[in-house]
Design goal:
Elements (H helix, E strand, L loop, with lengths): L2 E3 L44 E3 L2 H6 L14 E4 L3 H13 L4 E4 L15 E4 L6 E4 L4 E3 L5 H6 L2
Parallel strand pairs: 1-2, 3-5, 4-5
Antiparallel strand pairs: 2-3, 6-7
C-alpha cells in the first residue's frame, strides 16, 4: 500500500491535483489548493515506500551542499525497492514531470534537484549486499562509511 504523505505528486496537474494520500485521508496536494479537484485514488501508483508532498519533506531536499541552488520539488519519493522507483518514473514520464535522483545531497550546483518535479531520495536504499576483495554490491543509497564498516 502506498504511503503518500500530504497528497499527490503532481500538484498543479488537474488529473491528480488535490490527490489524497492512501494513508492520509484529509491531506491536500503539494499545490495546497483547498478547492482542487480530487482525482480517483487509483491515479497514484501503489508503492511500498513513501511518497511525501508535505512542505518539510520538500524543503529538506530543496537545497544542495553548496547552498547556492534551491529548487522546491512537488514530491519526494523514499523508495523501498527498485519497483517503487520504476512506478514513479513511469508515472512522472506519462505526465511530463521531471525527476532527479538524490544520494546524500552533496552536489554543488543543484544536479540532484528539480523544481516542481519529483526527487527520488536514494538514502532509503542503503543496503550493503556484499563486499569482497575485488568488488562490492551495494544499494543506491549506500555511503562510503557503511561500505567501509562492512569490510
Amino acid at each position: 500500500m502506498s504511503q503518500a504523505v500530504d497528497g499527490g505528486i503532481a500538484g498543479k496537474d488537474p488529473e491528480i491535483s488535490g490527490a489524497v494520500g492512501r494513508s492520509a485521508p484529509n491531506a491536500r496536494s503539494c499545490g495546497d489548493s483547498a478547492d482542487a479537484k480530487t482525482p480517483e485514488r487509483s491515479a497514484l501508483p501503489t508503492l511500498a515506500g513513501e511518497l511525501a508532498t508535505d512542505m518539510r519533506a520538500r524543503l529538506d531536499v530543496a537545497g544542495d551542499a553548496g547552498h547556492m541552488v534551491h529548487r522546491l520539488p512537488r514530491a519526494v519519493l523514499r523508495p523501498r525497492s527498485a519497483e517503487d522507483i520504476a512506478r514513479v518514473v513511469g508515472y512522472c514520464r506519462q505526465r511530463g514531470m521531471q525527476i532527479a535522483a538524490r544520494g546524500q545531497g552533496h552536489t554543488m550546483l543543484g544536479q540532484s534537484q528539480v523544481k516542481d518535479g519529483t526527487i527520488i531520495d536514494m538514502s532509503s536504499l542503503g543496503a550493503i549486499h556484499f563486499v569482497e576483495r575485488d568488488r562490492a554490491v551495494v544499494g543506491a543509497g549506500a555511503t562510503w562509511d557503511s561500505v567501509l564498516a562492512a569490510t
